[in-house]
Amino acid sequence: MDDNTIVLDLNGKGTNYTKKRLPVQLVYYEEYPRIDEAFYREKQVQGWGRKKKQALINGTPELLPELAKCKNKSSHENYEGGFSSAQPPSDSVSAQPLSDNDFAQPLQSKKSPDTSYDT
Fold first, then answer.
1. 119 residues of the chain, pLDDT tens digit each
2. Is 110 exposed, middle or buried (0-12, 13-18, 19+ CB in 10 A)?
3. How far does CA 108 lie from the centroid of its chain?
4. C-alpha dihedral over 69, 71, 76, 77, to 10 degrees?
5. What DSSP state is assigned to residue 65?
6. What is the C-alpha separation between 27 and 56, in angstroms, rounded?
7. Is the pTM of this model over 0.70?
């Protein structure tokens, strides 16, 4: 972020987002050699929750992997039920081995009628 952008933001002449939230204080920034890399990173961080952003601001990026873990009740890591509900009941019909006759036979190709004419 260049100094000019910061001055504009502090004077209320920057982006509309910043104008509506004055006064602002710069607490964290990263520099990138290319604008597309900076834009990608900005969008990435904007999608993060408050705790992950605070870890960056506080200089503790080692906390990010733990903060990125899903802690919802519906998370696969919190699931304790097992997969028994996906199995057929034990009293159902047992599987029988298949024989060669159980598989569909390949279709026979039909030869097209001979349409050549003798001249």
1. 566 776 776 677 777 777 787 787 888 999 999 999 999 999 999 999 999 999 999 999 999 999 988 777 777 676 676 665 566 666 655 666 766 666 666 666 566 565 555 55
2. exposed
3. 47
4. 70
5. H
6. 10
7. no
